[in-house]
Structures are given as structure tokens and as C-alpha cells.
């Protein structure tokens, strides 16, 4: 999202310095709650790019936007729920997946997308991730991995690479980070992919695939946090990081998720790692109860059942 | 004697805790506590304190980890705020039931929803019945002094209970204030090494957190109540010792121009200083106004409060939290029941103020006094009102 383009919105028109206004309206503007802009994200932050990709994925998906809901936890990434022009649920830190579970099961017709940070989904909320993946709940989890707790000032996160400096790891991190695709795969996620904010086309495609996929889909997106992660580690600004992603990524669709851990020296493995068919929670439940109760059971909300 | 310095209060609290020879700290970051956590990690990393410091994956884990550490006999500290404290809630009664002298700094912040990161007391109020000693501070000096004194209170053999030190988020944690930092030698003299009453050690097995059904449960609850009540005496003793050593005496209930006051206000935490200025203004106009500042929230200092209320005719209780559908703010209902049996008691008014960081200025405190003084028919007594609400 280019801020000068955002200024074209009607709401702001009269206050705008017209000499700086770009002539073309941002193509994803309709997907955003323009009254909530400008957003809080720092210059060079990758979250905006992810929102842009998500908007494009939605716009080209053909979905009725009244049937899509975004659920976020708390964090810089968690703010996405507040900016998308969709039904959204801004929940508490770590609990986006349980909120989404309730939402999805109470209204099985909804497309539910959880949009949150690495800390939210894998530190304080890690347990929920494991169980939703195990159940193969039908939802897409978009995790913006910026290797840190951005919102609270750059403390060490479960994704912080070894030796990186963080405000609570002043001499470098000594806790091994999680390999998120491996965790997702092992817990039972049925679609697992990783991209970076450099891979915008692939990311748009992956988001569409993740939304269409029946079951628990997980996309990790590596994203720069220039303010708290890059600066503290002398890794340049947002553009430097995107350049790094460009130069150091290798595409390995179907890679063994054990081999895709992020390290300081190895290339970043990107691609679609897992795509498997597995009954969703509702399908399993419908099958089990139909087998036991026969006609007395009315299936609810599964793959072949309308609400 | 310590040096007079200026410092951000959150950092000062971490420095003070760093003087207490702690063995273990477990934290999860949350605004406005983060600077306490970050500065502690610096102190440990720089070798200033010989302490295990772990950034666990949530506040639930942070409280669990310090319970474990304290059970092993380690002097343990954590700090949190708001949602983090709410997440710790499950563990708080366990720490007190196990009689573990943990000290926790709380950078008080409003509880969601809606999401808000600014100061009020809605995080600590729901923890009222957890069996923790709860202290409130008003400025940097008190935050530093009581963060240290808290260990001595908690670890006293007649107490052995966890203590929370409540420090208003932002209003206090993020201010740079002048204060005197005790020296390491002074703290060493004041705070003896921690001798736990029981520890988990293989050579002397004990069970902590054992099961108790209806046959013992009531007795254990009664014992805990006695322990919390009895701690009040020790708290004042430790405050007296502090006063002697550092020349800054503390009381369970502090007062300002209260002796001859006709109309009084009661505050907790950092707003006391603002209210104090309102008292000065009112006194200049000839109003006999006075202030009561509650330093100790649990155990509740009944006698001490009654003693300072004296002959006041009206008492304005300020609350920084709500008890929805209840009898008024939580402090108000406490004060009302504390004074219920008194033959002579002031008319009690309640204003719920400063929610979610809303500023309350000197002129507003003056306004509260003026409203109450204008209520000559005592119509508003015993009721509560949200101050400054836009309707
Ligand atoms: C129970 C609780 N604990 C702590 C916090 C403070 N907090 C807010 S966001 C956050 C971390 C955010 O990190 P991440 O999920 O990676 O999101 P980012 O900001 O990096 O996008 C923390 C610790 C909170 N809001 N609630
Ligand atoms: S702190 Fe980091 S993650 Fe948060 S908005 Fe700024 S750059 Fe983005
Ligand atoms: Mg993050």
C-alpha cells in the first residue's frame, strides 16, 4: 500500500496536498476500511504487502465478501482484522484460533481466515494451533513471521533466529527457533506453504489455494520488521530484507518440512510443502455419527452438506 | 546513602529488583510492563545479577515458572499487566496457598474489551481474592522502595505469601522521575538472604499442591485467611524498618491534611499526587479538605482506615475500575462495608474515574469536592457516578 495512493480516498480529498496525489487509485482500496486509515504500520513493514496480497487473493477468488471473516489476535499483524473491509474479529493475544473455531463451527458457511503474528500463533497461542491442525478444522491460518514480538517492542519470540539480538536477548538469542511448517505438518495441517513478502504472486496464489483447500491450511510469510528486528540486528531496512529474501530463497515444492528450518546461513526454502486430503473435523464428526445413528442423525456443515 | 537520580520508573523498578539478589525471573512482555522485563534482562545479561531469566511463552507460563522456582527455594520475581495478569489469574491462588513468597510488579492497565493499553485498576481488582498481599505506589520513590520491601514482607516467616506491587501503567511506569536509589550495601543490610520454609529437594521430599477434599479444604482456606490477615502487622513492621534505615517511613494508609478535615477523598495509586494539589487549592479557599491514600489493598487495613477518617462528614471514594451491576466501584463497596458498623461514619460518595487512561486533572478533583459539598440534601451519598462520562 502506497500511502500517497491511499490519500486519494474521498474522505481525505479536501485535506490532501494535490501535488503529491498519485493519479491512480490503489486497486485494493475497496478491500480496506478507509475510515481506519492511515494504518499504524511503520514504513518498510511487510504486513502491508501481505494485506495487499490477501486483498488481491480475495478479489480474484470470486467469494462473496459477506461470507468471509478475518480473525486476528493481538500484535502488529493482529491489526489486520481492523483494516479489512470484511466481518472481522479482533480477539485477545493468542486466542485467534479458538475464536475462529467457534465462528467456523457455528456458521459453517463462512470462510474463516486467521491472520496473526508468529508470537500470537506460536508462543502464547501455540497450543491452539496444534489442536486446530490435529482436528483439520477448515480454516486458513496466515502467519506473518517477522521473527519478533513487534507490537510490544521487539522481544525474543519462538521464531527469533539463533544469535539474533532482541530486547530481551541483548547478547543474542540462544533458544532454538521453531520450524513452523514442520510443526504444522506434524500436527496434521493438510496444506502447508511458506513464502516471503518478495513472492507476491506466489503468495496471492497460495492464499487462494489455502482458502479453497478443505481443511486446516497454514501459510507462513516471512516479513521484515525494520523497526525492531532489522535495525537491532543491523540488517538494513525493509527493502534490504526483501532483497535478501529474493536472493536467498529457493523454491522446493513438496520439501520435507524437517528440512526447511530457517537458519542464518542456509537458503530460505519456500514453496507448497504439504497438500493432502484428510477429512475435516465436521466431516469426521458427520461420518462417525451417521455410522452410529443412521437416519436419526442430520449431518451438519460438512463438505457435502449445505448448512 | 543512595544517590538521587532521575530515571524512567519501569527501569528504576527493574534496577531496584536487581538489588534484591533474586535467583529467578520469568516474564512475558506486555505494554506497559515491557521495560521492566527488558531492563531486567539487560541486568542479567550484563552480569549485574546472578539470576536465571527466562522469557516464557505466556504469562500463564511466567507465573507457573516462578511458582516452580519459588518452590525450589529461589527468590523469584515476575511482572505483568492487564491481559497478562488476567491470564495469570488461575495460578495466583495457588501461589498463595503454597505460601510462596513471590514478588510481582504490576503495571496497572485497563482490561479488554475494548482493547486499551492505558492505565486504570481493572486488572488488579479481579485478583482481590487470590490471597496475595497487594501494595499500591504513587511515585518513582515508592515504586523503588516498595519493590524492595516487598521481598522482606513476602519472605517474613510469619507471612510467607506472594506480594504484588501495583504501579500505574504509563502514568507512572513511563515517567522519568527523580528519586533516591538505595545502594547495594544498604539493600543487603535491609534484606536478609531468603530462607524458604520448605523447598522441593530430593533429600527432603515434600509435596506442594496436594489434593484436599471437603474434609480439609475449609480448614486450609481458614488458615490462608488467618495468614493474610496476620501479614498486616508484619507489613507495618517492615515499613517501619524501612523508615528507620532510609528515612522514608510508609504507612498502610497514608494521609494528607486529613487531621481536621470535614470532607475527605480516598485514592489509590498515582492519582494521589494530583488529588493532593486539589486539596491545597481547596484549603486555600477555606474548605477543610483532606486526602486518604490507601497503600495496602489486601489485607484490608480496617482499623488504620477508621483511625484516619476521624470526624469527617463526607468521604469521596475514587475508583479506577467498575463492578458492573454491583453496589459501586470495588474500593467504594469495600470502604462502605468497612465503615458499616461504625456508630459515626461519614456519608460516602463514589466517583469512578480515569478509566482506560482518561486524564483526571486537578480541577476535576476540585469539581468532585464541589459537587459533594453542594449536595446539601445528601441525595448523592451512597451512590456511584462515572466521572466525566459523555452521555
Ligand atoms: C495476555 C497478553 N499478554 C501479552 C500481551 C502483549 N502483547 C501484545 S502483542 C504481543 C506480541 C506480538 O507479537 P506477534 O504475535 O509476533 O505479532 P507482531 O506484532 O510481531 O506482528 C504481545 C506480547 C497481550 N496483549 N496479552
Ligand atoms: S514494529 Fe515491526 S512489525 Fe510492527 S509495524 Fe513496525 S515494522 Fe511492522
Ligand atoms: Mg511477530
Write structural notes for this entry:
The complex is a heterodimer of chains A (307) and B (391). With 307 residues, chain A is of the alpha/beta class. In chain A, 33% of the residues lie in helices and 15% in strands. Chain A has an eight-stranded mixed sheet, with helices on both faces. In chain A, helix 2 packs across helix 8, helix 5 packs across helix 6 and helix 6 packs across helix 7. Chain A is globular and about 65 Å long. Chain A starts with a helix and ends in a 14-residue tail after the last helix. In chain A, 50% of the residues are buried. The model of chain A is unreliable at 1-13 (pLDDT under 50). With 391 residues, chain B is α/β, with parallel strands linked by helices. Chain B folds into two domains: 3-246, Thiamin diphosphate (ThDP)-binding fold, Pyr/PP domains (Rossmann fold, 3-Layer(aba) Sandwich), CATH 3.40.50; 253-386, Rossmann fold. Chain B has twelve helices and 15 strands. In chain B, helix 1 (9-18) packs parallel to helix 6, helix 3 (59-71) packs across helix 4 and helix 9 packs across helix 12. The mean pLDDT of chain B is 97. Chain A binds chain B through residues 74, 90, 92-94, 123-124, 126, 149, 151-153, 155-156, 158, 167-171, and chain B through 27-31, 34, 37-38, 41-42, 45-46, 53, 55, 57-58, 83, 112, 115. Thiamine diphosphate (TPP) sits between chains A (74-77, 93, 116-120, 144, 146, 148-152, 157) and B (28-30, 59, 83-84, 87).
Amino acid at each position: 500500500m502506497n500511502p500517497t495512493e491511499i490519500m486519494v480516498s474521498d474522505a481525505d480529498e479536501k485535506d490532501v496536498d494535490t501535488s503529491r496525489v498519485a493519479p491512480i487509485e490503489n486497486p485494493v482500496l475497496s478491500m480496506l476500511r478507509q475510515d481506519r486509515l492511515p494504518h499504524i504500520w511503520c514504513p518498510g513493514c511487510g504486513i502491508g504487502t501481505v494485506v495487499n496480497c490477501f486483498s488481491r487473493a480475495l478479489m480474484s477468488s470470486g467469494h462473496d465478501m459477506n461470507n468471509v471473516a478475518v480473525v486476528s489476535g493481538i500484535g502488529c499483524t493482529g491489526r489486520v482484522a481492523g483494516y479489512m473491509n470484511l466481518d472481522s474479529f479482533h480477539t485477545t493475544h493468542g486466542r485467534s484460533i479458538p475464536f475462529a473455531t467457534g465462528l467456523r463451527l457455528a456458521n459453517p458457511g463462512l470462510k474463516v481466515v486467521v491472520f496473526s503474528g508468529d508470537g500470537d500463533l506460536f508462543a502464547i497461542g501455540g497450543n491452539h494451533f496444534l489442536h486446530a491442525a490435529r482436528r483439520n478444522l477448515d480454516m486458513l491460518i496466515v502467519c506473518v513471521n517477522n521473527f519478533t514480538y513487534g507490537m510490544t517492542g521487539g522481544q525474543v519470540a519462538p521464531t527469533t533466529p539463533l544469535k539474533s539480538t532482541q530486547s530481551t536477548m541483548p547478547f543474542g538469542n540462544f533458544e532454538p527457533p521453531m520450524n513452523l511448517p514442520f510443526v504444522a505438518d506434524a500436527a496434521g495441517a493438510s496444506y502447508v506453504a511458506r513464502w516471503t513478502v518478495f513472492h507476491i504472486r506466489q503468495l496471492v496464489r497460495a492464499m487462494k489455494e489455502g482458502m479453497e483447500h478443505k481443511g486446516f491450511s497454514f501459510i507462513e510469510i516471512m516479513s521484515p520488521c525494520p523497526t525492531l528486528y532489522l535495525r537491532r540486528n543491523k540488517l538494513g531496512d525493509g527493502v534490504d530484507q526483501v532483497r535478501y529474501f529474493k536472493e536467498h530463497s529457493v523454491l522446493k515444492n513438496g520439501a520435507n518440512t524437517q528440512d526447511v528450518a530457517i537458519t542464518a546461513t542456509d537458503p530460505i526454502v519456500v514453496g507448497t510443502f504439504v497438500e493432502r486430503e484428510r477429512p475435516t473435523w465436521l466431516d469426521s464428526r458427520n461420518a462417525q455419527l451417521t455410522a452410529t445413528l443412521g437416519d436419526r442423525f442430520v449431518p451438519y456443515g460438512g463438505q457435502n452438506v449445505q448448512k | 546513602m543512595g544517590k538521587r537520580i532521575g530515571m524512567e520508573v519501569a527501569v528504576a523498578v527493574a534496577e531496584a529488583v536487581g538489588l534484591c539478589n533474586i535467583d529467578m525471573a520469568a516474564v512475558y512482555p506486555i505494554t506497559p510492563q515491557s521495560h521492566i522485563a527488558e531492563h531486567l534482562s539487560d541486568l542479567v545479561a550484563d552480569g549485574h545479577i546472578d539470576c536465571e531469566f527466562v522469557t516464557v511463552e505466556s504469562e500463564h507460563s511466567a507465573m507457573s515458572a516462578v511458582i516452580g522456582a519459588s518452590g525450589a527455594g529461589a527468590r523469584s520475581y515476575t511482572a505483568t499487566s492487564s491481559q497478562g495478569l488476567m491470564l495469570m489469574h488461575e495460578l495466583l491462588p495457588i501461589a498463595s496457598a503454597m505460601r510462596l513468597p513471590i514478588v510481582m510488579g504490576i503495571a496497572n492497565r485497563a482490561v479488554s474489551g475494548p482493547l486499551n493499553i492505558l492505565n486504570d485498576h481493572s486488572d488488579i481488582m479481579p485478583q482481590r481474592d487470590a490471597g496475595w498481599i497487594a501494595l499500591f505506589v504513587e511515585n518513582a520513590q515508592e515504586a523503588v522502595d516498595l519493590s524492595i520491601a516487598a521481598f522482606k514482607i513476602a519472605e517474613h516467616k510469619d507471612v510467607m505469601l506472594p506480594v504484588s506491587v501495583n504501579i500505574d501503567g504509563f502514568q507512572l511506569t513511563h515517567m522519568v522521575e527523580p528519586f533516591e536509589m538505595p545502594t547495594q550495601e544498604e539493600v543487603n543490610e535491609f534484606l536478609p538472604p531468603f530462607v524458604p520454609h520448605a523447598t522441593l529437594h530430593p533429600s527432603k521430599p515434600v509435596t506442594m499442591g496436594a489434593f484436599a477434599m471437603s474434609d480439609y479444604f475449609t480448614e486450609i482456606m481458614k488458615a490462608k485467611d488467618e495468614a493474610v490477615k496476620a501479614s498486616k502487622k508484619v507489613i507495618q513492621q517492615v515499613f517501619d524498618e524501612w523508615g528507620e534505615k532510609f528515612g522514608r517511613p510508609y504507612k498502610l494508609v497514608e494521609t494528607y491534611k486529613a487531621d481536621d478535615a470535614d470532607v475527605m477523598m480516598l485514592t489509590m495509586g498515582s492519582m494521589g499526587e494530583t488529588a493532593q494539589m486539589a486539596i491545597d487549592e481547596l484549603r486555600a479557599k477555606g474548605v477543610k479538605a483532606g486526602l486518604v491514600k490507601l497503600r495496602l489493598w489486601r489485607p484490608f487495613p480496617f482499623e488504620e482506615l477508621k483511625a484516619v477518617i476521624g470526624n469527617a462528614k463526607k468521604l469521596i471514594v475514587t475508583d479506577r475500575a467498575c463492578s458492573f451491576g454491583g453496589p459501586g466501584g470495588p474500593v467504594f463497596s469495600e470502604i462502605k462495608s468497612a465503615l458499616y458498623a461504625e456508630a459515626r461514619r461519614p456519608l460516602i460518595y463514589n466517583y469512578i474515574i480515569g478509566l482506560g487512561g482518561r486524564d483526571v486533572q486537578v480541577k476535576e478533583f476540585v469539581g468532585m469536592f464541589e459537587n459533594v459539598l453542594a449536595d446539601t440534601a445528601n441525595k448523592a451519598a451512597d451512590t456511584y457516578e462515572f466521572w466525566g462520562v459523555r452521555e
